[in-house]
Amino acid sequence: MEDELMPISFLQSDDVVGIARDLLGCRIQTTFDHQLTEAFITETEAYKGISDMASHAFGGRRTMRTEVMYKSGGHIYVYLCYGIHHLFNIVTGPENTPHAVLIRGIEPLLGIEIMEMRRKKHYSKGGFSSGPATASQALGIKTKHTGIALNQHSIKLLKPKVNDFAIEVSTRIGVEYAKEDALLPYRFNLVLKNHP
DNA sequence: CATAGGATCGCCT
DNA sequence: GGCGATCCTATGT
What residues form DSSP beta bridges with A130? Predict the structure, then answer.
């Protein structure tokens, strides 16, 4: 089990865009209330620290909410969007470099029944947890978990098990307010091969 | 203190 | 394709 953990040092380089891409296929495993669930990451977006107009830390902004982004890579940042959706990010980079990767899609591997209960929806391939709020919900991740460190408590990042996939690159969703930065190729999708 | 708006989803047509 | 939900966060007075 321990040898399956992704080393946290992987998350502490300054290359948040590369990390976002390399997180595709990695597995997130959560254990809340003795309920184990695991899924692999299918979609990510990079948010590049203080220079990225789409980032909550743009311009070096530090608030109660964004403070966790300034921690070292490997912590998690969860915030509430539109009053209802818990959006789950992995903080990356060295301390005081507020990069983050938004987890936008997952595909379940373990504990599918638990995820169905959380989602209040039956599993079906594709739309079950392909969206940042539905992915968090399936894994049971909520805003109260913001700030905790990966691989030490209830949330773990494990090495990939799938490797036969292609990567699609595109622009980020819902960041029109970020002007020209909305055009950056910071969104990554995992596309399994031989699965049309 | 008041207010505007959001890294979205799901249901409706 | 369109819109309402729903409430926290950030900002301004």
Answer: A105
**Contact flag, residue A13 CB and nucleic strand C, below 7 A:** no
Sequence-separated (6 or more) residues with CB below 8 Å from residue A106: A28, A39, A40, A41, A42, A129, A130, A135, A138, A139
Q: What span, in angstroms and rounded, lies between the C-alpha atoms of A64 and A154?
A: 23
pTM equals 0.96
Question: Residue A1 CA to C9 C1' — how many Å?
Answer: 39
Render pLDDT for A60-80 as a digit per residue (tens, 0 to 9): 999 999 999 999 999 999 999
Chain B bases under 7 Å from protein CB? Answer: 5-10
Bridging pattern class, strands A165-170 and A76-81: unpaired
- Angstrom distance (rounded) from CA A157 to CA A103: 12
For strand A85-92 and strand A35-47, is the pairing parallel, antiparallel, or unpaired? unpaired
Contact, A87 CB vs strand B, < 7 Å: yes
Greatest Cα pair distance in chain A: 45
Q: Is the per-residue pLDDT at A195 higher than 70?
A: no
- CA neighbor of A196 nearest in space, from A102, A125, A132: A125
Judge whether A95 and A54 are in contact, CB under 8 Å.
no
Computed over every residue of chain A, the mean pLDDT equals: 96
Contact A16, A99 (CB under 8 A): yes
Q: How far apart are CA A89 and CA A74, in angstroms?
A: 10
Tokens matching residue A63: 């608030």
